[in-house]
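So, can you check?
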Amino acid sequence: MYNRIFAILALLTICLGLAGGPGNGARAAAGTSPAQVASTPPQPGLGGDPERSFFIHPRPGDFSAGFQPSPLSPQVTLGPSGLSYRYIQTIGVTGEPYQTDADHLNLPFGVFVDGSNNLYVVEYNGQRLLKYNSAGFNQLIIGRPGQPGYQEDHLVYPKDVAVRNDGHIWVVISHALKEYDADGNYVQSFPLDDPWESGDDNGHFNDPTSLAFDPAGLLYVSDSGNHRIQIFTLATGTPVYVATIGLGVPTDSNLGFDYPAMIAFDNLGRLYVADKNNHRIQRCTFTTSWNCATYFGVTGVPGNDLSHLDNPFGVTVRNNDVYIADSENYRILKCNLSGVCQHFAGVTDAPGSDNSHFSWVADVAVDASSYVYVSDFGNHRVQKFNSAGVYQYTFGITQVPYVADTERINTPWGVASALDGSLYVTENFGYRLLKYDAGGSQTWAVGQAGVVGADNYHFGDFWAALEGGLAVDAGGRVYVTDTGNQRVMVYNADGSFFTQLGETRVGGDDNAHFNCPAGAAINPSNGDLFINDKCNHRVQVFYSNLTYKTTIGVTGVSGDDNLHFFDPRDVAVDAAGNIYVADHGNFRVQKCNLVGLGYTCSTFAGETGNFSFSFDHLAPLGVGVDSHGRVFVADDWNNRVQVFSSSGAYLTTIGGYGGNNNGSFNGPADVAVDRRGRVYVADRGNHRVQVFAPGYMGWVQSNLNGFGNPFNNWITDMVEFQDQLYAGVAYSDWDGYYTSSLWKTADGKTWTEVNQSGMNLVMGSIQSMEEFGGMLYTGTYTDTGGLVYRSPDGVNWTPVSAPGMGVLGNAEVHQLKAFNGYLYAGMLNFSAGGQIWRTPNGLDWTNVITDNFTTGNTAWWGFEEHGGKLYAGFAVGDYPDSHGALIRTGDGESWEAVTLDGFGDSGNLAIHGLASYQGYLYVSTRNFSGAQVWRSQSGDPGTWQKVVNDGFGDPANSRAFNLLAGEDLLFLVITNLATGDQVWATHNGVDWFPLTQDGWGDPNTIFSGYADKAALVFEDLVYIGTSNNGANGAKVWTYYLRHPVYLPLMQR
């Protein structure tokens, strides 16, 4: 039975997609890792903001071989704007699948004993290394419990551990090695670059299992998936390839191996290899080259006597004794150096959980006192024996890998909502079915936490657990696809067992069996049950009485036409009987209909065989529908949920950023929608279910995310021109290409992309816009110098300035402002300092101010007219030792300082927002103790009053980028990098109240209204343009200035 485990160990990381870059578990396409971290390039034109790198975020790797991103609209059909979802709740504890301790072991794998008799154990599912002293007390833990990752303090499905003579600890993880010093401090990973990527060259591994050091200090690694032993020198500290033992392909000759597992050296420098699939132990000796011969076992012949082995996995040598973990015989053999063996521990061919038995042994180690330590993988323990094989002690607790509670969820996968508002969740690595009430409190659980089993109240096998979505019928029964046990389990609403479909742990391709069932759905109109039979590449349909009805797909045959599926992962059925299949291997969702007992299918979303980050591509793992016929797709590799209309038009995206903030995902596995329209997402890498509700009170999203393109990730400025609202949109992709597009709308709902004829924005972007003299002007960023363009119609553009105004380093026209018959341009320059230029006619430009107030000013953050004078806000000095500064002019030539020291507060690093409102000039600051707002009627020095302090009590409200004056409301837009942007308002300038929190319910929404731009009043609506941290495209939010007032009802 346990032999199946190791046929799939190399695939677990990819299949589960839990490993991530820093704070992330972004999935990758074939050939990349779920943890690959790429960076969206810093968006050009941040106005000299030293935090330009906020766009750097975890991304999957080279998704898009052959995919050429375009700044124009993608091919996906676009639906109407206006639909959005806000984060409202988390069920589970983010990043905590279970509570950590050193008393439990979650599938212990490799064991090692150092020269001081310290025991080292790595947990395969627990993702940790634990060190115990000779008395059995824990001394060190490396890794996060149940949380795989390639970050420095994480491990990824570790298999073995060894300690070098310098005390450094080396760990084998998925496709790589990690080194820590004796105190557990990270030293290095090998390979250093992209350690998650497998390979067969001499700088990569494919599913490595073990490592050992020879007497000379050379490092040996059993590269199991490549069927070889790799040898490295550590003379320079970093592994450098020396030689290979083996052919690199599976063989039963003495020239190589078939899945070499654990390795060890004897005192003579001979290497012992557990050649698992050949059922033997090989001993290799070096003279002028390496030569291997069978030390014990009969090549290719498993057996359970004292001449044979059955899939041996572990081996170790102490003095003249060789110990073999004869894994499929559930025993330990003790042998002399001549290969004569005797039974040492366990009961041959009889698994068990008492102290005389093992449940599959993974490894064995011996200390200097001849105590023997056995990694009893299936029993979640390490057993200690004396030299005579007498049991002494247990590390861990037998068959208890960890202690579960009602707060945490271990790798949620399936999620479903019942008619009464209750919620069902399956735990993939937790092997349980959980039920929650409508408030999110757990009411019961079926299964034993972290323990597989095959009775009616256990789930999973070691090769697979619970995958796919759940289904709940009208009677409240829940249908669970028990993937590892090849069956579908049905439970009543109280958690009691009702019945099952399929034969337990017997896969098949007839209509009575399943092969990796993953995902269930109920047709709400007739009660038919749909089971996604993943490994058979089909969907099985049953009548409501659970008798077989028909099959969708071709049993056992994958394909990419409309008759076939390839690795389907989930299924959903809407009220009209339309069937949606997450055809993961084909990167598409298929929409199918039954025609009698036959079927037709067509591609509903995605593109067959192609994957990228664009909205028309996806890697579907889960699919759900709501009462309006909208289809929700858990787009696993993109860490997002895509929402489509019933006709397949794109509507919106939830998430899109790999991380653990609220609203971000780390491998979303499934999605469900309840009767209220709330969306539940199984965020499995973050060990939680996130809940979202439609809309945000008082606000409406004006555009589709990114205007239909996720790489359109920032609204840089907005302006009204000729009764149209224009928005400049910055585009940047992962290849470093950036540009801009220009969009317009007359009604605030329907946006049209404007053809920017004559405006060269290749590797450039629109940064500022202003109407002047009946023409629309744009200021741009380019590598060769910012330009000013103008247009009489918003379509045809002419450059009206020299690049950078002829000044070297003027990369961007950061601000444009019309004042007293002139158009003013604030320039960004990192070297020479920002300048202000002006023109009376849009053609002839004069420099009216250089960086003559102080050094360190790189850009002008905001302009505002008040009391007949033009004010400019900026920063004095070099960030982060800068001070907010404000200057003004009446004639555009003579400028005076209002403040150069942040109004006397050294924490005010810059002045960003400016607005004239009800006779006062208001300015807002950047302050990392919390942003401030100041006001003055005259604007004169010494007349300023602070009206907002300390970011409204939240220091993370540190960047007050925008102030906007409405008719009877003053708006303040604050960036909060922790929880998302906020909008506050006031009627009188003193008493403020929040209009939004947490990025309109999406914490990825940051840098809204950046640099006192991209916010304005148009047709009695407030429009605020945002960026979305590279997650799901820039958004424009609208707020009605004249909301109805509801008076209290009086009842007679």
In short: The first helix runs from residue 5 to 16. The helical segments are 5-16, 950-953, 998-1001.
